[in-house]
Structure formats: structure tokens, C-alpha cells
Design goal:
alpha+beta; Barwin-like endoglucanases; six-stranded mixed β-sheet; 10 helices; 19 strands
Length: 426
């Protein structure tokens, strides 16, 4: 793995979570249907129930396609595959549960998704000109505004899918566990009783007849007899820790095969930075807390590695997934596989999941334009506010280098079905 400096880069990721610790839109951990592998089926409009509207905090200003900076220059690579997968998510049955993140209104998307089926465009090899023509015919751009009615310019960060080296057995250098969801982990949806707490969930466990907070990372490590099932043993504690920060990743096994360790749940504890812990202990200045320096410190202080890891009480639990299409990343909060440089995490208080967006920002650490159509398919603990966006770079070291350096300013337009009015949520 390439060494990425933290000072204005991964320091932000190790000191404050990005698109991590999010719950996919599923009934229970580990039960995510792989709808990307299924054909797009669009039900009749009357078969899609009308559920109560979910309020959005921002407002929208209708604009023309010519108002989108660089729209004609976007190559639209992988856009049609992402768009079709997005329709698969939109056309799923609607639960109306306030415990779920706000999603784009399915009924207004039904005609567009039906037209996509009839278009004859191939998700694997769609013609750019035809895709652009379809989008312009079917969709209307709306600029996202903040509560004051001003363009919602905000921070754009990046995340990616890392690679770790792991074994299914604890042996040799493979000593650092990544756990499956514990059988005693409880998840309580507060929004089902208190609508004002929609989307808020409490993790815990039973202690007699009481629900108490679930174990911290330190408590899990200190109780081998009660530890969850281990999916894989990683050869480096810092790499294993960083995979948890990202929330998902791929693991290369000793025989060269790959497995995906996808986010399944977490212990409900707040995140804390190991970089800040090292600085507070006087082990290294915060500005020097790069991944390479943290790994070097861990090698020099093997007896204190667990102490360092325990500084973060949060623990992410995983599920194993097969890698069928290397172009597809892990599933985001919308339970749709992310596509590198075509998927983003958003604040669903302003932009509902399943919305196509046009993002205007710049490449990491530069003024070079980064202007492209993306899909709102994920959320994140630190992704809050109008226009706040986390850009998914894809898999591997190069994607990690870009993600680690990205802290740009950006503007957002939501692309919404024509004749449907301003964007709405359910």
C-alpha cells in the first residue's frame, strides 16, 4: 500500500470519521439482497404505494442543463450502469419506515425507470451520446440551496475501498481480527416510537432484563471467550483499523483469492482518533501522524498496540461478500453497490438517497475541475449539512491516495424527473 501523508490528508480520516458507521437500508445485518445482479423490473405506477412525504431541510432552484459547469465534458463512463442500479433501488418496495434514511420518491421515478428499460441501452457498454440525450430528455436539474436560499456550497471529502492481506486462520503474521456481527447485539429503532428521532438507532445488549450499551473495543479484546466470530485475521493492526474507518474493504488471502469484508453493523460506541491519542501521549505530533508513522510506532511498541487501538471504543462488524463485478464496490447505505467516481455520500436531510446529482468541485489539492454526474447512494457520520458530500474514489492504493488528499469545496445540483416538480423524499 502506498504511504499517504496525513497533515492535510488521512489525518482528517483518522481524526474524524468520513463515510463510515452507517447502516444499509436492510431489515437485518447480513441480509442484503444483491439487487445489482438482478434485471431491472419496473412495477406499474398503481402498484407503488404513496407513503407520507419526508421533509427536506434545503430548497431547490430550477435551472437549465446549460447552467451546469462542464456538463458537456463529462464522459459519462459507467453512468448508465450506475443509473440502472439506482433504478433497481428506487423500484424496491417502499416501507415508509422513519427509521430508514430518506429516499427519493419512487412514484415520480417510475416513468423514468420504465423509459430506461425501454431505451435498449446496455449498462456495460452504453453510448455516451445516447445516455446524455436520455438524461436531458427525462430529467430536470435543480440547484441545491441552503436554508437561507443561497447556493449550498460545502466541503467535498473522499473515501475508498482499501485492500488488506488476511487469512481465514490465525497463523503467522495474521493476528488481528475482523469480526462478524455478534449474536447478542441488539438494535433499537427509536424512530418507530418517536418520529422526531427518525433514523436514530441504539445498539446494546441484554444484561438480565436491562438493555445496556454494547461492549467497547477494549472489552471485546479483553474477553476472548465472548468474542464474536472472526471472519478474517489481518497481518497488520493499523491496516485492519483503517479498514474499519472506511467501513468496508477487500482482503487478499494467502492463496491469492479475494474476499470483500462489507460493513454489517457496529457496537454503537462513539469514534475516537488514535492519531489524537498518540499526540496526547507525547508519542508523535499530530501533524506527523501519517499511516506510515503510526505503523512504524506499532512495530516499535508491539506491547502497546492493543492499548492504542483501545483508544477508539467504536468497533465495526463485517459480513463476507463475493466479488462478482470488480467495477462494483461495497454496498452503501442505499444497499446499492458503489461505483468508483460515480457514487457519493450525502446528508439525507437535504438530498434523499437514490438521487442522481451533478457535482462541481476540484481534484484533490488542486484547482483542476472535477465535474460529473454521481449517485447519492451512501451516508456518513461526518457528512452533515447542505451540499456536504463524500466522493467515493473506488478500490485500491491510487483511490486511497486521492481520497486521503481530498478536502475541496463543491456545489450540487439534483437531477429530478421532469414534470415532477422539485425533489421530494419518502
Amino acid at each position: 500500500m502506498k504511504k499517504i501523508l496525513f497533515s492535510a490528508t488521512l489525518l482528517g480520516l483518522l481524526s474524524a470519521c468520513s463515510s463510515v458507521l452507517v447502516s444499509p437500508e436492510v431489515q437485518a445485518p447480513g441480509q442484503v439482497a444483491d439487487i445489482a445482479a438482478l434485471p431491472l423490473t419496473v412495477p406499474a405506477l398503481e402498484a407503488i404505494p404513496e407513503t407520507p412525504a419526508r421533509p427536506l431541510q434545503g430548497t431547490f432552484q430550477q435551472v437549465s442543463w446549460t447552467a451546469l459547469p462542464g456538463w458537456q465534458d463529462d464522459s459519462l463512463d459507467h453512468v448508465w450502469k450506475a443509473f440502472i442500479n439506482n433504478c433497481k433501488g428506487l423500484m424496491r418496495p417502499v416501507s415508509g419506515s422513519l427509521a430508514q434514511q430518506a429516499r427519493a420518491t419512487p412514484r415520480v421515478w417510475q416513468p423514468v425507470c420504465a423509459a430506461a428499460v425501454q431505451s435498449g441501452l446496455d449498462p456495460e457498454n452504453a453510448n455516451t451520446v445516447a445516455v446524455r440525450q436520455f438524461l436531458e430528455q427525462q430529467l430536470q436539474p435543480w440547484r441545491l440551496l441552503d436554508a437561507a436560499g443561497k447556493p449550498a456550497r460545502n466541503t467535498v471529502t473522499g473515501y475508498y475501498e482499501p485492500l488488506v492481506y488476511a487469512s481465514r486462520k490465525r497463523e503467522g503474521a495474521y493476528q488481528w481480527p475482523l469480526y462478524a456481527v455478534p449474536t447478542d447485539l441488539l438494535t433499537i429503532d427509536l424512530g418507530s416510537v418517536y418520529p422526531e428521532l427518525a433514523g436514530k438507532r441504539v445498539r446494546g445488549k441484554l444484561d438480565g432484563n436491562r438493555v445496556v450499551p454494547y461492549d467497547t473495543r477494549a472489552q471485546i479484546a479483553a474477553s476472548p471467550e465472548r468474542q464474536p466470530e472472526v471472519l478474517a485475521w489481518v497481518n497488520d493492526p493499523v491496516e485492519a483499523f483503517f479498514l474499519q474507518i472506511q467501513g468496508s474493504g477487500r482482503a487478499q488471502l494467502p492463496d491469492g483469492s479475494m474476499m470483500r469484508l462489507a460493513y454489517a453493523d457496529h457496537n454503537g460506541r462513539p469514534y475516537a482518533s488514535i492519531a489524537t491519542w498518540l499526540a496526547n501521549k507525547g508519542e508523535m505530533p499530530l501533524a506527523k501522524a501519517s499511516m506510515s508513522n503510526i505503523k512504524a510506532w506499532a512495530r516499535s511498541h508491539p506491547e502497546r498496540v492493543q492499548e492504542m487501538l483501545n483508544a477508539n471504543p467504536a468497533m465495526v462488524f463485517f459480513r463476507e461478500e463475493a466479488i462478482v463485478d470488480p467495477e462494483l464496490g461495497p454496498k452503501g447505505a442505499y444497499a446499492i453497490p458503489l461505483i468508483g467516481q460515480r457514487s457519493v455520500a450525502v446528508d439525507t436531510s437535504y438530498v434523499p438517497l437514490g438521487s442522481p446529482l451533478y457535482l462541481v468541485t476540484t481534484h484533490p489539492g488542486s484547482s483542476r475541475p472535477l465535474q460529473r454526474l454521481v449517485m447519492a447512494q451512501d451516508t456518513g457520520a461526518a457528512i452533515k449539512g447542505p451540499g456536504r458530500t463524500d466522493f467515493y474514489w473506488g478500490f485500491g492504493d491510487e483511490a486511497g491516495a486521492e481520497a486521503g488528499r481530498m478536502k475541496q469545496s463543491g456545489d450540487t445540483w439534483v437531477l429530478w424527473p421532469k414534470q415532477a416538480g422539485a425533489p421530494t423524499a419518502r
